[in-house]
Amino acid sequence: MSELEFLHALHVDTLRHDGVNVAQGPHELFQTSTIRALLGGAFDGDVTLEELLAHGNLGLGTLNGLDGELIVIDGEVFKADLDCRLSRPPGDALTPYAVVVQFDSAHPSRVQAITGPLRAAEVERRLWPERDLPDGPEAIRIDGHFESVRLRSVPKQTPPYPSLAQAISHQHIHELRGVSGTMVGFCFPDGLAGIEIVGSHLHFAGDDRGRGGHVLDYTVREATVLLDDGTQLHVELPGAVAAPDRGGGVDQRALRRLER
Predict the structure, then answer these.
(1) pTM for the structure as a whole
(2) Domains of the chain, CATH where assigned
């Protein structure tokens, strides 16, 4: 995809915390910080979860110090601890990185029923059969029953912060079997490589909201996938984070190894 085509597909703007009340319309994504900053150990942010939820009802992220994995479903936010147990964090908790969108489950851009068993890579090939990635960012919601879901969370970090790769090297991995639940997240195109994780990024919460976390892999038995095309991306930059450079020198292959 050319840079010109990408700019036609998505408008990206950046703002500081004093502009966090930017108007939010349908299909507009709101993000705190950038993946490049997170890779470098920028684990402190200045946006509260209450502020985050004002911009979207579906999404994912983490808390300051990488204190758990955030899952936002139907306007409710959950935190997966090191054992992938879910709890409800307070609204004044801060996030150094999160992405949300106002997701209308009743009117998605696309709906696809999936019958398995199918692994994550096979599901993605069905969602985007004619290309590796969508032309623009897409929000994803997958509701269904899974033969297995492989999850991870990482220990809370303390200053001076390590790099994200060093933090993830201490991850805890858990596998849930025969579980029903919801996966939420996003798939981002190549044009956002300096800002985002290129490809799909999903977090999971079980129907009972007991376990969840960052999704490493899964096998779906039966599910419904809802996709929503993003039109704009508002990126809030904490004080210590520089404006993003699209493309940004981020090694996406190395990043995907960290994510999967």
Answers:
(1) 0.90
(2) 3-259 (3.30.1330.80)
